[in-house]
Amino acid sequence: MDTIKVVGKGNGGIVQLVQHKWTLQFFALKVIQMNIEESARKQIAKELKINQSSQCPYVVVCYKSFFNNGAISIILEYMDGGSLADFLKKVKSIPEPYLAAICKQVLKGLIYLHHEKHIIHRDLKPSNLLINHRGEVKITDFGVSAIMTSTSGLASSFVGTYNYMSPERIIGGNYGNKSDIWSLGLVLLECATGEFPYSPPDQAEGWTNFYELMEQIVQQPPPSAPSNHFSPEFCSFISACIKKFITYMFTCEFQCECRHFHS
């Protein structure tokens, strides 16, 4: 493998664009240094197990993983469009028809993870949704995912990105698949408006105190899509995603909202 460039950093390691010397095919090589805490090592072990066993067109493919010079190296499918976060920086906001296409693919990926692999992602955000030149969107980065151990599919651990964390997770209660749907709702609303759905006290400084952000998520009404800028279908779908303290989301009502938005 020839290293081309560094394309990302996070979760204790870096991601490089590499090219196979013989086939000239591009891959993403994620290198994670092992001088980290035991809790982080366990998260990485879960990521490897989940990625290598996942076979879904809406989840980034993991081809191989190995140990080398005190680091874990993971060879992943290369998504040449970067992340949704990268794309948002360029375009500021995404039109509703394109959001519907993105949403449909992410939901299919989540359905696979939730029902086939029994996994809650727990860190769904724009930087963990990758894009390629064909317009495909895939879920990546299972460093904080957990295999649900109880038959009801609930968990009580506190990991993930605070900004997109559901209220039931913030207060340390039980949560299920719905926590990922909450995160998806915030991601879509941010993509639609070009702004993170929760407004900080000082707009110029942004969120400098994550405790204030968590307090607002728990105590204030959920954000909503402005009805004067978006279709009733999109507004209803966002409201269905961003509901507080619901542990299971793929109900008939929610599926109905999905069909209306994607049609």
Automatic annotation (TrEMBL):
This chain's source organism reads Gossypium gossypioides (Mexican cotton)
Q: Which UniProt keywords apply?
A: ATP-binding, Kinase, Nucleotide-binding, Serine/threonine-protein kinase, Transferase
The family database entries (PANTHER family) matched by this protein are listed as:
DUAL SPECIFICITY MITOGEN-ACTIVATED PROTEIN KINASE KINASE 5-RELATED (PTHR48013), MITOGEN-ACTIVATED PROTEIN KINASE KINASE 2-LIKE (PTHR48013:SF32)
Q: Report any one BP term from Gene Ontology.
A: response to other organism
EC no.?
2.7.12.2
Q: What class of enzyme is it?
A: transferase
What domain of life? Eukaryota
List the molecular function annotations (GO) for this entry: ATP binding; MAP kinase kinase activity; protein serine/threonine kinase activity
- Protein kinase domain ranges (all copies): 1-263
Instruction: Give the similarity note.
Output: Belongs to the protein kinase superfamily. STE Ser/Thr protein kinase family. MAP kinase kinase subfamily.
Q: Which reaction equations make up its catalytic activity?
A: L-threonyl-[protein] + ATP = O-phospho-L-threonyl-[protein] + ADP + H(+); L-seryl-[protein] + ATP = O-phospho-L-seryl-[protein] + ADP + H(+); L-tyrosyl-[protein] + ATP = O-phospho-L-tyrosyl-[protein] + ADP + H(+)
Where along this sequence does the record place binding of ATP?
K30
Name it: mitogen-activated protein kinase kinase
